């Protein structure tokens, strides 16, 4: 009986051991399967990230293509440009307390013609007009000290509407169109928001059918060309770097006509140093909130420059 018990015991022990082994094997198999699944999931995740990156790359390539197409179109249009209208304005100081916009008190302009085969700019004509402010007709001391414009000068000057009409007649006289010309400014403030604000205030509609020529920021282009990469590069510093002087243009800094001529001088220096305006792609449209509005006074405004 004892022997039989021992046999039974041994059998039961072996069964228990086998069960334990099978359990361990099952656990191992389960662990291996879970590891395999994890590896597969990770691979799937990696593939999805790659896919996302691929899609992102494709989107970026498409955007680059669109931008390149726009740049090429802009360059094609630029090759039709013969005239550059360098414009500078003097305006009253902005009053942040009363939230009043600046009013133009002087328009200065120098038209130059680009001759690509000679890589030079030739002076064509200049325009200067003082303007009478109407919201704040009395100039501040800061304004008169900075610009040198006297109160009696603006008191006798025409309003902005009259001055702008004269300016457009001047441009029309020199056959300026949206295709053959570009406005040029030192910084963007003159063309955004000062001119659009003045146009809207006087209810002046854009010329039909094409509006105004586009403009570009000479200040920005100069900073890029010279490696300064400063969008707010001072005109006085640029004049100094180009070995020019405001006095050679007939006056001092912060006179609109003197500054316009000075900016044209910088423009000439850039072209003689190798800058090509036909490679320019940073053109901006003059904003005009009245573009889609009807005006009863539009027939009285002689502002067609096309």
TrEMBL record:
Which residues lie in Basic and acidic residues bias regions? 1-16
Coiled-coil region(s): none
Q: Which UniProt keywords apply?
A: Exonuclease, Hydrolase, Nuclease
Location of region: Disordered: 1-32
User: What Gene3D superfamilies does the annotation carry?
Assistant: Ribonuclease H-like superfamily/Ribonuclease H
In its UniProt record, a GO molecular function of this protein is:
3'-5'-RNA exonuclease activity
The answer, when asked if Nuclease is one of the entry's keywords, is: yes
Q: Where is the Exonuclease domain?
A: 83-276
InterPro entries hit by this protein: 3-5_Exoribonuclease, ERI-1_3'hExo-like, Ribonucl_H, RNaseH-like_sf, RNaseH_sf
Basic residues bias: where?
A: 17-27
Top-rank lineage group of the source organism: Eukaryota
Q: Which PANTHER family match?
A: 3'-5' EXONUCLEASE ERI1-RELATED (PTHR23044), 3'-5' EXORIBONUCLEASE 1-RELATED (PTHR23044:SF61)
UniProt name for this protein:
Exonuclease domain-containing protein
Give the originating organism.
Neocallimastix californiae
